[in-house]
Write a sequence for this structure.
């Protein structure tokens, strides 16, 4: 077990070093959830579960863009199955990525998305402008953020990047063969259900539709709904609400944030609906919960919640 953990740590460290070496955005999409369920890989790989850059984050504030991005992952997975090797792709917002599939025999386990690149500025900006018009995005803001995330690599550097990530992909495939009994061992949830749960936990504060969740798992909405209920004895909406209320209670326990702000932070745009769901799950209203737990909270303000680093910096200097 110690050697298994050491090899997993080595792969995650290699991933981090390559990310730093090329100053690239790296996304690890675990198609089967085999790696994210594994205790050796889970903590280290989770940060790579989403595109962690300001451009993608800005776009995903738009519900339609979030759905389009999820559908894009479906298309990438299908291409991986057909091509069986790395390939170059362009997203619906005009940025380019290198895709590195991770196979075990003929089974697609996961794929790495590495970017963001631009080889044709005129074409890239045209695609971005069309997408902004279609989805109601501010073109100037998106272009500014786009320019910040593009990685300028020479052809030689790009070839070196390809070699490095091909080797890393092969190493993850080898890891699967070593940990097969762990990666595919006992799990309470079906892989599709597990993937849905992970997605909900990462995006609970966004507008989650059944279609978005289903596209993330490469299945139909009706199939996902039936499978989720069969596996968990809970509906998807009930699970989303349970995650949101759990996060709300956490914020109520550690902060002085207004209840309306807490409701918004955990994904409810209507405070009345938040109160109704909260009482249904906890058997008390949000206000009643606060009264029962009065005096047990930490002193975290709205400003500290939104800008913790800035507040910490000022406190360190003795400023109030």
């Amino acid at each position: 077990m110690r050697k298994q953990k050491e090899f997993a740590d080595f792969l995650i460290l290699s991933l981090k070093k390559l990310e730093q070496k090329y100053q690239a955005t790296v996304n690890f999409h675990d198609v089967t959830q085999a790696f994210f369920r594994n205790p050796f890989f889970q903590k280290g790989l989770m940060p790579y579960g989403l595109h962690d850059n300001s451009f993608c984050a800005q776009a995903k504030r738009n519900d339609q863009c979030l759905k389009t991005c999820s559908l894009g992952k479906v298309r990438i997975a299908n291409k991986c199955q057909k091509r069986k090797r790395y390939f170059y792709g362009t997203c619906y917002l005009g940025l380019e990525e290198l895709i590195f599939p991770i196979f075990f025999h003929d089974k697609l386990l996961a794929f790495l998305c590495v970017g963001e690149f631009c080889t044709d500025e005129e074409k890239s900006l045209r695609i971005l402008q069309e997408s902004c018009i279609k989805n109601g995005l501010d073109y100037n803001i998106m272009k500014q953020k786009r320019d910040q995330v593009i990685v300028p690599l020479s052809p030689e550097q790009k070839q070196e990047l390809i070699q490095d990530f091909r080797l890393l992909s092969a190493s993850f495939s080898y890891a699967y063969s070593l940990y097969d009994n762990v990666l595919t061992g006992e799990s309470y949830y079906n892989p599709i259900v597990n993937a849905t749960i992970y997605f909900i936990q990462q995006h609970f504060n966004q507008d989650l539709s059944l279609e978005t969740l289903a596209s993330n798992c490469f299945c139909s909405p009706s199939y996902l709904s039936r499978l989720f209920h069969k596996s968990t004895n809970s509906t998807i909406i009930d699970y989303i609400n349970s995650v949101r209320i759990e996060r709300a209670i956490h914020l109520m326990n550690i902060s002085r944030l207004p209840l309306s702000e807490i409701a918004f932070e955990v994904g409810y745009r209507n405070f009345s609906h938040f109160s109704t769901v909260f009482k249904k799950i906890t058997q008390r209203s949000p206000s009643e919960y606060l009264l029962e737990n009065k005096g047990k909270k930490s002193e975290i303000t709205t400003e500290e919640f939104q800008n913790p680093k800035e507040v910490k910096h000022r406190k360190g200097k003795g400023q109030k």
